Structures are given as C-alpha cells and as structure tokens.
C-alpha cells in the first residue's frame, strides 16, 4: 500500500505543475524581446562627438644637454646592476600630442654616460628615440626613428618603469608634468 500512495502523490505534483508551466510559456511568448539595437540607439545630439581625428605627432626639437643639478635618479629593478639611470627634470615635456618627451642618462659602472632624448606614448605603450649622445657631446638626431613597443625586461626595461610608474596612469593616460616630476622625486604610491 505505501508504494501506491507515493506514485499517486507524484502524479498529483506533476498535474499541479502543468498550469504553472503553461502560464510561464504564454508569458514568455507575449513579452517583447530586446535586441542589441535597442541599447545603441542613435541620438541626434551626439552625432559626430565620437569621431576621432587621426593622431598627429608634434615636432620634437632637441633639448640642451642635461645639467647635473636637474638629474633625478631612476631606480630600475630589472636592469643590470652595472647601470644607473637618471632623468633630466629640466627638459621633461608633456606635448599636446600626449607624448612625454624626456632625456635619460644611462651611466655604466666605469663612469661612461650615454644620453638619449626619447618620447613615450602612454596610450600605445610605445617609445621613440629621437636623438642620442655621450657625456659632454651634443645630441645627434637618430635617422629613421620610429615608434617601438616598450621592452619589459633587461637594460631597456627603464622605459617600462617610466611608462607604468611615472608618466602614465594604469589606463594609459598621460600625467601632467608636475605629477611626473613629483613621482620621480619619490612622492607617489606605485600603482602598476
């Protein structure tokens, strides 16, 4: 007898679900469905606001050679211990083209110095070497200079640190000159 009662209860439960299932089915068919176009409706007030003008690089005139008093030490954890780096705070520029132009001095353990005048594009995570020189020499323009990806390791990883910790925020937006100088002097919290 108990087995028959269980079967009967299950049959009753299923019969109770039929009207509920029918209601849900009818409700689902009668509701309007949303398409992707419903969320991206054109509004006449905003026409043309999102058109992007092509990026145009500004001219990069060569700066004077760095003065010793303007040099700010740059710590580069992944570089060789035989090299030290400094940024010339006197000639750091943030252009209207959103390129941070700077002079970096790379000094070997024997005291030899290489001087590079470069630019970093925050939004693209690229750099360009405009000119180079040696300690006491004037800059020499680099022919065929082009934008290149920033290296993540080795002796060139200083550009990664400049990009991620000093020049750009984590969204690739360029900082102001004042913010960059403050960060180079040590007044910031690392937000890589």
Entry summary:
By secondary structure, the chain is an alpha+beta fold.
SSE topology:
Layout: H1 2-30, H2 36-39, E1 71-74, E2 83-88, E3 93-94, E4 99-108, E5 113-121, E6 126-134, E7 140-141, E8 148-149, H3 158-167, H4 177-184
Antiparallel strand pairs: 1-2, 2-4, 3-4, 4-5, 5-6, 6-7, 6-8
Descriptive key words:
single chain, 192 residues, alpha+beta, 8-stranded antiparallel β-sheet, 4 helices, elongated
User: Structural class, please?
Assistant: alpha+beta
Q: Overall pLDDT, averaged? A: 79
Distance between the termini: 72 Å
* Residues in β-strands, percent: 15-25%
Q: Treating each run of at least 4 consecutive H or I residues as one helix, how many helices?
A: 4
Rounded to the nearest angstrom, the radius of gyration is: 31 Å
Helix content: 25-40%
Largest sheet: 8 strands, antiparallel
Shape: elongated
SSE topology string:
HHEEEEEEEEHH
Number of strands: 8
Poorly predicted segments: none
Provide a descriptive summary of the structure in words.
With 192 residues, the protein is α+β, with helices and mostly antiparallel strands. The protein has a domain of 117 residues. 27% of the residues lie in helices and 23% in strands. It is built from four helices and eight strands; from the N terminus they run H-H-E-E-E-E-E-E-E-E-H-H. Strands 1, 2, 3, 4, 5, 6, 7 and 8 form an eight-stranded antiparallel β-sheet that branches. Strand 3 and strand 4 form a beta hairpin. It is elongated.
